[in-house]
Amino acid sequence: MGAVAVQERMRLVAGELSCLGIGTWCFGRKGNLFYSTCTQEKELLPLLQVGILDRIVREVPEQKGPKLLSDALGLLWCAENVPIQEGGALLIVFGPVCYSEVTLRSLEERLREMEVSIEIKSPLFRVFRQIPILSTGEIQRLAAMFHFMMTEERTGGETVWDHAGQALPEKQLAQEEPEELAEDRNAYAEEMILGTIREGTPDYRRIISESGVLGNDLISKSGNPLRDAKNSLIVFSTLCAKAAVEGGVPASRARDLRCSYISGFETCRTINELVQAGDAMLADLVERVREIHREPGKSEAVLQCCDYIRSHLRQPLSAEEIGKQLGYAGYYLTRKFTKETGMRMTDYINQARIEEAKIELLTTRKPIQEISDEFQFGTRNYFGKIFREQTGMTPAAYRERGRVKGQQPTAEK
Question: Helices in 295-344 by DSSP H: which ranges?
């Protein structure tokens, strides 16, 4: 076997496979795991143990050379029995890999059918998205390379065996991705984003970064990319508003918010500005649902008060006027609001106005004084004071940070 020890050869091969995102697993003859280089070991080891490890322990020691095995999920694993110089042998496995996008699609469909929360689905979806997709020819060449590195013997063209022990036909292994697959994948990612709104969880940021769902699924092809993107986001805002209502946001407020978001979309002059506007919309809706979930025990009077405040942030607000509109005495509503929420009504109003002002800062070019006047802060200095208390920075600094992050052109300060 040459001068290089088997263990050193295994380390070299594991390093090569790691560069491709493929894990290496080392087992004893009875299937006990010695080590692995897989970065998703916690999530994938149960799949290996339940789906195919028994077959590896039973069949691979009887075969000379590598064996390619497909488990019940359609994931491919390569296994070989490797003698070591000290005596005995190790079972070396690398994988999993997918041999087509179709296989990956079947994994996603299984996730879609699982009746579990998005907190459980999201990590699994992330792990499956990290499984490499290789052609069967590439997988067979890796198996041949692995065997040569271990034994200095040549092999190739290994058969792929399914979970029932039958050879998979070449036609099945060569499946091409259906034309509608990308559309289905975007739809699934979109549904996961809507799920984060319904549940008030901030995981939408990771889903967007991994799927690019807001940038790839344009609904029109006008020849104007910015117009296409606006159209797509406008339609998506309808779905987001509906998800927010399902999460507990009053329907009337969701409609008003959507109109506000769309107005902001239309003022965007670049794709980057539009991405910032879309992100601000999602952040706002998620936070609104989170607030409802955090304090589910609010009385009807206080819930009505919160809804009224958020629906009239651009108008003068006082406890007396709000009470008059809702049919309560101002002093009664003030005391009840503070008791149930733990904050003064004026502080709640300022907090809600700052959240809306943040969206205006990121999605429009309005001067800061105009935004201050729009949300009834009176003076720019007072607006800046309240803004700093809640965000730790000035309105101008907040806008500049958003501009740099999204590479937007300079906005008016």
Answer: 300-311, 319-326, 330-341
Q: Residues 228-239: what's their mean pLDDT?
A: 84
Contact between 233 and 265 (Cβ < 8 Å)? yes
Residue 327 — φ and ψ, nearest 5°? 85, 25
Pairing of β 33-36 and β 89-97:
unpaired
- 129, 214 in Cβ contact below 8 A? no
Q: Which of 236, 254, 252, 255 shows the shortest CA–CA distance to 194? A: 236
Q: Which of 130 and 209 is assigned the larger pLDDT? A: 130
Q: How confident is the model at residue 395 (pLDDT cuts 50, 70, 90)?
A: very high
Cα 176 to Cα 197: distance, rounded to the nearest angstrom? 34
DSSP for 85-141, written as a single string: TTSSEEEEEEEEEBSSHHHHHHHHHHHHH--S-HHHHHHHHHHHHTS-B--HHHHHH
pLDDT on residue 125: 67
> For 290-342, what is each residue's pLDDT tens digit?
877 766 667 778 878 887 887 788 899 999 999 988 888 988 999 999 988 88
Residue indicated by tokens 């809804």: 307
- 139 close to 147: Cβ distance less than 8 angstroms: no
pLDDT at 111: 60
Question: The whole model's pTM is what?
Answer: 0.41
At residue 376, the pLDDT reads 92
Give yes or no for a contact between 161 and 69, defined as CB atoms under 8 angstroms apart. yes
Rounded-to-integer distance, Cα 373 and Cα 9, Å: 71
Q: How far is CA 72 from CA 40, 69, 125, 177, 405, in A?
A: 19, 10, 18, 20, 44
Q: How far apart are CA 359 and CA 383, in angstroms?
A: 15
Residue in 130, 156, 19, 147 with CA at minimum distance from that of residue 75:
130
Report the mean per-residue pLDDT for the chain.
75
What domains can you pick out in the chain, each with its CATH number? 6-103+131-173 (3.30.450)
Given a contact cutoff of 8 angstroms between Cβ atoms, the answer to whether 290 and 197 are in contact is no
